[in-house]
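Revision sheet: structure tokens.
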Amino acid sequence: MTVVTSTLFLASTAFAQEGGAASSDKKAPSLLEDILKNAGVIGYVIIGVSILALALIIEDFMSIKREKLAPPHLQEELEALFDEGKFDEAMDVCEAEPCYLTNVVAAGLDKLGHSYNVIATAFQEAAEEEDVQLSNKIGWLSLIAAISPMMGLLGTVNGMVAAFGEIALKPSVKPNDLAAGIKGALITTLLGLVVAIPVTTVYVFLRNRVTMSSIEIGGMVEELFERFRTKDD
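Predicted:
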């Protein structure tokens, strides 16, 4: 289910029961059915965006985790090679299995023979580049969370303009003539908020995961290269 449909599922059941109690001879449509019927073009665009958000969330949860950014077997292998002084073999390992950890370590290994400050600058800059890539990766969720309510508001304003257009064209307007249009307009705002709230929550969670992973991996790399530090550094 998409971000929209999964959030609305429970609410639709409750609203359907409420509608059934209010009218025994006419079955009220569920909230989900009502939304799909009255969403309009902008509403369906928001639903499409929610599907994209769901795909991004799944992919980010699969790729942005400790086991992917710094696999334990690579950490152990690099530590063993550093302890044995086999830095060429360590570089081969980094080139064979690129990831956050190996990319940062490779940047430091590439500066061996220089002072520790030069080495540290190299792997710190590589870590910053990795952080930027991860931030850009989850940044799409931030964008979706930001534009979804705006798209909902756009749909609402568009619907309200159409409703007031009906008032301008007809000499007398009954509430029933406007109710459907106004409801359809408000549905887009509902959809926008239903997408934005969970996506914002997931974005903050992933942003914190990126920060913690960056700190942890940075500590690993500094420990590996600490042996090259001299009293003058």
